[in-house]
Amino acid sequence: MTTKNNHPKAVTVSFRQCLQGTWADRILLFSLLLVIAFLWLQISQTLNQGTPTAYIYHGNTLLAKYPLPDDQHIIHVAAQGEIGISDIEISKNGIRFDSSPCTTHHCILAGSKRYAGSVIACVPNHIMVVIRGSDKENKESIKFDAISE
Fold it and tell me: Residue ranges per domain, the chain?
C-alpha cells in the first residue's frame, strides 16, 4: 500500500510582491505616514514651549518640577525611589544624578543633560527626570537621541 504525500508545496514570494496591494492599501499607508509626521511635529512643538524645566518623576507620579537656573545657582533634589534616595542636581548646565542607591550607577555615568526632550533615569530606583521647554537665548531646540548623547 502506497499513499501519496499531500503536503502543500512551499511558495516563494519576492519582496516586491509583498509590497503590491490595492489602492485602499496605498491610501491607508500614505495616511498613516502623514499622521506619524504630524504627531512628530506636535511632540517637538510641545516639548519646545516655555522655559527649560526639569520634571522629576517616581514611576508615573510627578514629584517636583524646577526651572533650570539662569545663574550659577545649583538646586539639589532628594528623590525617594523604590530602593532609596537619589540626589539630583539641577543647574544652568543641565540635570544630572549626583548619587543614587542603585548598584550599576548608569544614571550617574550618563552625565549631564540640558536639552529639551532629554531624559535621564535611574531605572532600579524608578526615578526619571525629563527636560521640557526651550532656551531662547542660545537658540537651542529639541534634540532627540536614541539612548544617550
Answer: 15-46, 50-132
115 three-state secondary structure: coil
CATH class of this structure's domain 50-132: mainly beta
Those residues with Cβ within 8 angstroms of residue 109's Cβ, 6 or more apart along the chain or in another chain: none
Q: Which three cell numbers stand for residue 112?
A: 549631564
Grid cell 550607577 in the structure block, residue: 105
Per-residue buried b or exposed e for 64-85, using 16+ beta carbons within 10 Å of the residue's own CB = eebebeeeeeeeebebebeeee
Partners of 135 in beta bridges: 140
145 band by pLDDT with thresholds 50, 70 and 90:
low
**The pairing of beta strand 53-58 with beta strand 127-132:** antiparallel
- Please provide the distance, in angstroms rounded to a whole number, between the alpha carbons at the two ends of the chain: 70
Exposure of 122 in the CB half-sphere (CA atoms within 13 A): 30
pTM higher than 0.85, yes or no? Answer: no
